[in-house]
Design a protein that fits this description.
- It is a single chain.
- The chain is an alpha/beta fold.
- It has 23 helices and 26 strands.
- Strands 5-4-17-16-15-6-7 form a seven-stranded mixed β-sheet, covered by helices on one side. A six-stranded mixed beta barrel has the order 21-25-22-24-23-26. A five-stranded parallel β-sheet has the order 10-9-8-11-12.
- β23 and β24 form a beta hairpin.
- α3 crosses α20 and α10 packs across α11.
- It starts with 8 loop residues before the first strand and ends with a strand.
- Bound molecules: iron/sulfur cluster.
- Iron/sulfur cluster binds next to α1 and α6.
Length: 694
């Protein structure tokens, strides 16, 4: 913990870790941050916090921060520190040379769910206006892109439906593929309070997560499904709802498309979707599935919360639609205590998607193929927008290896460590003629870069983050950027050097432009955020005070759309050669690839990544706690220490990915969601053997 003495003043800002979006008072002495104190007026956290937001801010002043821009002609050369002007001119020249040689579509960029809405908006604007293509994507591609697709298809909006506070009215809480205690701790505490009051808990997860240990007044049920069988499980839950007459007929008749509903009903009631028929697929006893379906459907209020255990699968989008189907069929949409609630891992996953980072959508999920949408943006931006969707991140990698994609601008994302199948990513990055990395540290991706532009932490800039409940919170600058520029200023400088002028003087002007172009943001401004503290979008003429609960009266698409969700088994299966299924997750004290949390002063937090294995699987292999294990998949091999744990089901192993050396993504494959290419991090068939040393 950094403590510089008695604070002199404080600034209210927003945590830059998870999607709960807790508000903090940054207590300052001069320009030194004394401590972070959870802000009682915070609409998402009401004065609560977890260890990360409270204590893990030392990375902002860590010696590893990049303090000046650097360039080099090729990746085998040493970095050369230069002034900002030279670095920006070098980057712009290389991008232009790359386009001149390989064509307009040969470059693109990646936005970050760690950065602010305003920064993200500017990067995608730069790509569309200055690069002249739609090759923009976000790191949300590898986490919640199926949420965007699945919820937009079924409910008409790519966002969760509730406030966090809504959980206090839930009678049955269904948690699927999420581990809130470690990944969303402040919301997990709220959920636990509701459980102690007597709500019923159902957890669908291959692991026995800690939430199941919460002492509470109601009952709890664990559905330990096999990795990769989510869709089979949700179909069997819906089958019980339909065949046992547990539907909300009134809600379906009034709020849902009748043809789509009838088609779905015919499909879901087929015998192959019954819990009994799917028992061997999911591994969950049919009697438990029936019990869970009844507990959810019969509750006065049933709420679903899900995480990356839903989205990071080859059927991630199908599963999101299956969850929405289940909520609509039981009438659990449109009031407090119910809903479909994606728990976002990073602080601004929602915002990075809202701000037009996707290659097919402009801000506000407005499709590039729509001429009226393009005309609106073209008029304000004074440019022409391509009507063809651009490349997604995995397509960029493939095109780089094929030699047609040659230039990439990456803001705040360590793709070399966080994307799956590291060997493939490294081959793509090595093939680039121009890689520009804008980051706060010299990350793994920077090893392949030609230009390094220092990034700024959340403490060094103004802006907004949008949390998992669509709440737009202010981020306020408490100290100057270590390298002299906020991230949005860097993007603006690059755009100007490329010949597309940008002249913003403050992020509030960027938000004003976002509000002009984004129908769900027309009522959002910094002045209103100052007045209200936070705003949940949609905030516009129809919802001038914002929208805590979505879909209360109707859906943006009119009627709710039931989607057919046929279960298709993943290609990644246990076999004689790779008999165990690996799944991945996080621990409380670390965050993603650990770039920030590993750079805190508390060494007790720096637990290594380990492989958790069930006692029976350990026994047949003669493994004990602390043994070194070689873990092989069909794409790679890594070494981790063994931890024997009965949290795992037999046949399933688990690890985290917080340390660069552990290489979890060396073994994950490039299987991905059929609709969005979100990687299938959650299922990798592996072999495990004891080795003498790493
Ligand atoms: Fe930050 Fe999330 Fe912890 Fe809140 S729960 S303090 S947003 S990491």
């Amino acid at each position: 913990v950094i403590d510089h003495g008695v604070p002199e003043h404080s600034v209210v800002t927003t945590c830059a870790y998870c999607g709960v979006g807790c508000s903090f008072e940054a207590q300052m002495k001069g320009d030194k941050l004394v401590r972070m104190v959870p802000y009682k007026g915070g609409d998402a956290n009401h004065g609560h916090s977890c260890v990360k937001g409270r204590f893990a801010f030392g990375y902002a002043t860590h010696k590893d921060r990049i303090r000046e821009p650097m360039i080099r002609d090729s990746i085998d050369q040493a970095w050369r520190p230069v002034a900002w002007d030279e670095a920006i001119a070098f980057a712009a020249r290389r991008l232009r040379e790359t386009q001149a040689k390989y064509g307009r579509e040969s470059i693109g960029g990646i936005t970050s769910s760690r950065c602010t809405n305003e920064e993200t908006y500017l990067v995608q604007k730069l790509i569309r206006a200055a690069f002249g293509n739609n090759n923009t994507d976000t790191c949300a591609r590898v986490c919640h892109s199926p949420t965007g697709y699945g919820l937009k298809t079924t409910l008409g909006e790519s966002a969760g439906t509730q406030t966090f506070d809504s959980v206090m009215k839930a009678d049955t809480i269904l948690v699927i593929g999420a581990n809130p205690t470690d990944a969303h701790p402040v919301f997990a505490s709220q959920m636990k309070r509701r459980l102690r009051q007597g709500a019923t808990l159902i957890v669908a997860d291959p692991r026995r997560i800690d939430l199941l240990k919460t002492p509470h007044g109601g009952s709890s049920l664990h559905l330990p499904l096999k990795p990769g069988t989510n869709v089979a499980l949700v179909n069997s839950l819906a089958h019980v709802v339909v065949t046992e007459g547990l539907e909300d007929a009134d809600f379906i008749a009034k709020r849902c498309d009748s043809d789509a509903y009838q088609r779905w009903r015919d499909f879901i009631q087929e015998p192959q979707n019954s819990p009994e028929a799917l028992e061997t697929v999911t591994g969950v006893p049919a009697v438990q599935v029936r019990e869970a379906a009844r507990a959810y459907a019969n509750a006065a209020n049933g709420a679903i919360y899900y995480g990356l255990g839903v989205t990071e699968h080859s059927q991630g989008s199908t599963m999101v639609m299956g969850i929405a189907n289940l909520a609509m069929a039981t009438g659990n949409i449109g009031r407090e205590g119910v809903g479909v609630n994606p728990l976002r891992g990073q602080n601004n996953v929602q915002g990075s998607c809202d701000m037009g980072s996707f290659p097919h959508e402009l801000p506000g999920y407005q499709h590039v193929a729509d001429p009226a949408v393009r005309e609106k943006f073209e008029t304000l931006w004074h440019t022409t927008i391509d009507d063809e969707p651009g490349l997604r991140i995995p397509n960029m990698f493939d095109a780089a290896i094929a030699g047609t994609f040659k230039g990439l601008y990456v803001q705040g994302e360590d793709i070399a460590q966080s994307d799956p199948n590291t060997q493939h990513v490294e081959a793509a990055l090595t093939a680039l003629d121009c890689l520009i990395v804008q980051d706060i540290f010299l990350n793994e991706t920077a090893k392949y870069a030609h230009v390094l532009l220092p990034g700024s932490t959340f403490l060094e800039k103004n802006g907004t983050f949008t949390n998992a409940e669509r709440r737009i919170n202010r981020v306020r600058k408490v100290m100057p950027p270590v390298a002299g520029k906020e991230d949005w200023e860097v993007t603006q400088a690059l755009s100007n050097a490329l010949g597309y002028p940008m002249h913003y003087t403050h992020p509030s002007e960027i938000m004003d432009e976002i509000a002009q172009l984004t129908p769900t943001f027309t009522g959002v401004s910094y002045a209103r955020l100052e007045e209200r503290g936070s705003i949940q979008w949609p905030c516009n003429d129809a919802f001038p005070d914002g929208t805590p609960t979505m879909h209360a009266l109707d859906f943006p698409i009119g009627k709710g759309n039931f989607a057919i969700t046929e279960y298709v088994a993943t290609e990644e299966r246990a076999s004689r050669r790779y008999p165990l299924l690996l799944t991945t997750g996080r621990i409380l004290s670390q965050y993603n690839v650990g770039a920030q949390t590993r750079r805190t002063d508390n060494s007790a937090w720096h637990a290594e990544d380990v492989l958790e294995i069930h006692p029976s699987d350990a026994e047949v292999r003669g493994l004990r706690d602390g043994d070194w294990l070689g873990i092989s998949s069909r794409v790679g091999r890594t070494v981790l220490r063994c931890r024997v744990s009965d949290r795992m089901a037999p046949g399933v192993v688990y690890t985290t990915f917080h340390h660069p050396g552990s290489g979890a993504n060396v073994i994950t494959t490039d299987n991905s969601d059929w609709a969005t290419n979100c990687p299938e991090y959650k299922v990798t068939a592996v072999q495990v053997e004891r080795v003498s040393q790493p």
